[in-house]
Specification:
This protein is an all-alpha fold and 94 residues long. The protein is built from 3 helices and no strands.
Length: 94
Amino acid sequence: MPKGIKTGGRTKGTPNKATKELRERFSDLLESNFESIQTDLESLEPKERIKTLLEISKFVIPTLKAVDNTIDLDNVQNEKRPNIIFLGNGIKPN
């Protein structure tokens, strides 16, 4: 098999069935125990309550990825250069 050529398995973009099922089951578990979880959360200190809610949410809400966007101004055509507005002390960067 040539290196870099995929010949089997899941195709790109196909959701993982095991992960999907696990998330659904965990969501169902949270829903069915909502009242007891609510009571337990209310007994925690505010800092611990927020920490716990954030940890639980990772299993139900998808995590967003950070996006890094850079512009190489040397390679941008003049008509497509972004407008740069300098605010502050009047010193212009190089």
